[in-house]
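User: Study the chain.
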Amino acid sequence: MTMTVGDFLLQRLDEWGVGRIYGYPGDGINGILAAMRRQDRIDFVQTRHEELAAFMACAHAKYTGEVGVCMATSGPGAIHLLNGLYDAKLDHQPVVAIVGQQKRASLGGHFQQEVDLVTLFKDVAGAYVQMATTAEQIRHLVDRAFRIARTERCVTCIIIPSDLQDEDAVTTPPRQHGSILSGIGSLARAEVPPQAALQAAADILNAGKKVAILAGAGAHGAADELVEVARLLGAGIAKALLGKMVVADDQRFVTGSIGIIGTQASFDMMNGCDTLLMVGSSFPYSEFLPEEGQARGVQIDIDGKMLSLRYPMEANLIGDARATLRALIPLLERKQDRSWQQGIETRVEASWRLLEEKARMDTPELNPQRAFWELSQRLPDDAILAGDSGSSTSWYALDIKARTRMLGSLSGGLATMGSAVPYAFAAKMAYPGRLVVALVGDGAMQMNGMNCLITIARTWQDWSDPRLIVLVLNNRDLNFVTWEQRGMAGEPKYETSQELPDVAYADYARLLGLDGARVERPDQLGAALDAAFNADKPFVLDIVSEANIPPLPPHITRSQARKYFEAIEKGEPEADAVRRALAQQGLTEQ
């Protein structure tokens, strides 16, 4: 049989190292799906929705460092990809989207499912989005899409009309004017700034007496170097949410998360430092960074566009985090005065004690912090975690102790709901021998998670370790937004928009052939967690949890605290519970 464009597309993807494509079928990609059937090098993973396919491709990139690939048909299928692709774009992940289109002759004729896909994807895949019109283009469209996605850590998109997919492939375009003969080849680039720039940065860090380090997702793989820098400079290390797993929490000077769902230790360190070293982070909240003029700054980032964006830095180093830190270390001087770091370590110990106290507080329904705290004690060192957006994010950030071999991620820049379970599934597909845990609220579970359980149910028997745990905080409330209504706007909970139906998630899991347990009391929690960890199939933990546990920032100003009480004065429907919860956090009405 003659090789078609669809066949050659998959051959080229294989040459780029693609082993898996997440997607959903449709007639706009029938030619590619037919080619999938004729080969055995690339797996097609059918998802329940194209949004989930894009989430999975993004998660694959985050957990493996490889380019993630998703595929959808024309029109509605392509549109469904967008949220997951924006997740990848805003978190700087390399993802290639392959999208079908109506037959070329119909374009411009207001045909069914005809959408201007180049325009549609121009923002999310602005670095490279192209539609093929001839077979000769396929080779260089694939090559450029992958090379740009990998080098610029971005989303790219290839659009292939359905009739083109069945045409004869052109693997080698003719050697003539107008032809493009691209290649794959290896990739290498300079990743270390020049020596003069390194020395200027070292001079700033050596001059500082109270150095604070902020590590983000761009610092993954540089844990040893960050720890060595912190030891030399007598510094502490705070972590942005996407950088939670960059450095283990067993280092006494690691202050943990920063920001609205950060620790008191991180807050105090940023407010007390005289020098800030930011590595691979675009943490957006300036109120949790040093006040302008308080600290001198050094920043390391592979993307020059992100430098001096969050804080005015004196030294801006464009380079790979690990390679740049390794080049910087010989220029750093060990500080003899260790009092700053010792004070950080004391505050870190106090932060962990406070978090444990909060986790063990009695609440009318099960304390969600306790569920995360006890989960953390049981996690193996190589566990992979997938977070979501909501109050569950707070407890992931605060109560899970990162360890050296752990992986963990969530939707950071976009902060979209519904990413945890598809992330967990993609992590399990990439690492079938490791335990994976999805941490999700009931809103996100109802939005995407329940659909994704169907995909898990048809796939799990292929995994060498069948355990995938989905921990659902079932508080019947869109909880984080409810607390934002109270704490940011001073408005009462609007029950019509915020309350959620009570779903029996564990029963639903069993309906699909999985396992699960519903936890309604604290004395049931330990046994349910043990059952999940010892299960021989994926397991859903339905944690019936207290909604009135405020995900408060580490330091509350009087004006911020007043907002909560304004909400009560305006008719908060759960006023007594909110007062009680605030009092447990040390906040009382003045």
Summary: The chain has 23 helices and 18 strands. The chain has a mean pLDDT of 95. The CA atoms of residues 194 and 317 lie 9 Å apart. The two ends are 81 Å apart (CA to CA).
